[in-house]
Amino acid sequence: MLIRGAAIHRHGTGDLRIDGGIIAAIGDLAPRPGEAVVEARGGALLPGLHDHHIHLAALAVRAASVECGPPAIRDRDDLARALSRPGTGWLRGFGLCESVLDGELPDAAALDRMVPDRPVRLQHRTGRMWLLNSAALDALLASSTPPPGLERIGGRFTGRLFDEDAWLQGALAAAPPGLAAISHDLARFGLTGVTDMSPRNDPLIARHFACEISAGQLTQRLVVAGGLSLADAPCSGWRLGPAKLHLHEAALPDFDAACAWIAQAHAQGRGVAVHCVTEVELVFTLALFETAGARRGDRIEHASIVPADLAARMAALDLQACVQPHFVHRNGDRYLRDVEPHHHKNLYRLASLRRAGITLAGGSDAPYGSGDPWQAIRAAVLRSTLAGTPFTPDEALSPEDALALYLADPMDLSRQRRVTVGEAADLCLLGRPWHEARTRLSSADVRLTVVSGRIVHQSVDEPPFERLARCEAPT
């Protein structure tokens, strides 16, 4: 395949040839006989974007679920209407926020009043809790022993289920979902690779991922983070990522046991990625690495709250950070309302972390955030809330630095992937030059997505004679 007349990232205007899934040549190139040609018309040709923190299975099941939180759902009446969907089987909701119900978490009785005649499970916006109605409790407990995380008050199950996703999946006898639809959506955004960061990832889900890749259902390159047992799984079409330690401030693990776990991960040749969304979790994590030792590739996921002194400790340990800039845009109005002003400067830092020498990469946290990386890139540049209120604007990045969050090599975040001869042909072609695209930062500008020389997305507005058959274009 020949991409002709592109504004090639860090090269200038030229042509690029793909052969055997590799970038074979860059320059002023003549088409070969029978070679497929894409006329770029001066559009920016970028390395394909990589989402460094995503949850594929959860994203796949969300399409069949009911949204239960802001901004779509604002109050109790909105929630009741959303849950009135007709049907008799399980009803799954996501994104429930206490603000919808005047600061309360519903119990089974409260959900029964909204949905009395079918089993309902609603996932809290944090992803850590499920809320069940009575029909759901009856269905789950008919064949499964109640787990420790199922809250009981006064001898009665409340329907609140904490940190028991594995139990819930087993009780539902749920098979992992297909990934074709979400892979198609991710390709529309110019994403050529993802890192699945689900902490419970094990050889079983890795086998499912391998099957989806082999069947052509998941077209992005895949890095799988998760438990220590992943090191024993055959890497069939995917690469082994960091070991994931998911902390919860209210139930921190034994310190010595956590240090031993980090040592085991390092012995496997893996970095460790630690979920940190509170200051306490970050302090605990830094103490872990200061005691157990840090190695290249250790990283902080989210880095939601980072006071300046903790940023300095992160830098001293050479820890990297995977950030979600779009959370400031989506949740910033709530932060401004609910968080004390003197804490605002510590929320979702960007520019100051870079100045401290900390390597940054971008991840969506989808489905808990939008899977569109361009929304996050734009949010990192604008640094404002949904209402348009500036939020610590000194933390904003330039469009180029924001884009770089998604061009990092998933196996070495300190390395930026480039469009260069010999590299894998994982590419994102925009419909306009970068000097225009940088003012828009919109996935609507993605015209072509190529993974290993294979077209996985092409805009539908191309003239017919220029459109190539998806997945069948010669390379």
Looking at this protein, list some descriptive labels.
475 residues; alpha/beta; Urease, subunit C, domain 1; TIM Barrel; Diaminopimelate Epimerase, Chain A, domain 1; 3 domains; eight-stranded mixed β-sheet; eight-stranded parallel β-sheet; disordered C terminus
* The CATH homologous superfamily of the largest domain: Metal-dependent hydrolases
How large is the radius of gyration? 23 Å
Helix content: 25-40%
- N→C terminal distance: 5 Å
The backbone outline, from C-alpha atoms, is globular
- Estimated share of beta-strand residues: 25-35%
Question: Helical region count?
Answer: 15
Fold-level CATH name of the largest domain:
TIM Barrel
Q: Which runs of at least 5 residues are low in confidence (pLDDT < 50)?
A: 463-475
Structural class by secondary-structure content: alpha/beta
Q: What is the CATH class name of the largest domain?
A: Alpha Beta
